[in-house]
Amino acid sequence: MLNDRLSYGGGQWRVIESDVGIADDWSGYNLPRITGRHYKLYYGKLRNGTLVISRDGSGRYGSEGVSIGLSFRFPFLYEFDAIYEILRTLTWQLSNSKDVDMDRRDATLTRELLRTLWGIQRDEMYVFQFHEAGPATVMFEQLQSMQSRLAHQI
Fold first, then answer.
1. Which of 59, 138, 139, 145 is the most buried (most CB within 10 A)?
2. So what's the pLDDT on residue 25?
3. Burial, 31: exposed, middle or buried (Cβ in 10 Å; 0-12, 13-18, 19+)?
4. pLDDT tens, position by position, 75-117
5. 3-class secondary structure for 97-133?
6. Could you give the CA distance from residue 43 to residue 68 in angstroms, rounded to a whole number?
7. Which residues neighbour 143 within 8 Å (Cβ) at sequence distance 6 or greater?
8. Other residues' Cβ atoms within 10 Å of the Cβ of residue 66
């Protein structure tokens, strides 16, 4: 499902689930007692980072909250639109599908991209990290829909 969303409209991002623990040298995450899925992040054929999807440890969204952490190297090698599209796709998955929530997430996304641009201009920023959490209503609804379709096929 995630790769389908990331490649929508000709996007070149994709993920492959990893058997590595949630903390490794690519992700920069060390979250005790937080379970989740760890993915290798690719742009085209280039392995460039890590995506971690886990339970939201902050408790802000209750026990069902989901958190993502995205890290990749050398953000200045990618077009703005490529970075924006992966972040927008991921943050939409975390939203509650209401316009006000997506507007807030878009503002966060814009702020992070401006901060990254500033970092690149000032000191040649080499690692991009993005963290976001939410109720993931959109993601769960899509997974349920996909599960229902698979059950009907069997």
1. 139
2. 45
3. middle
4. 888 888 888 888 888 888 888 888 888 888 888 888 888 887 7
5. CCHHHHHHHHHHHHHHHHHHHHHHHHHCCCEEEEEEE
6. 18
7. 1
8. 20
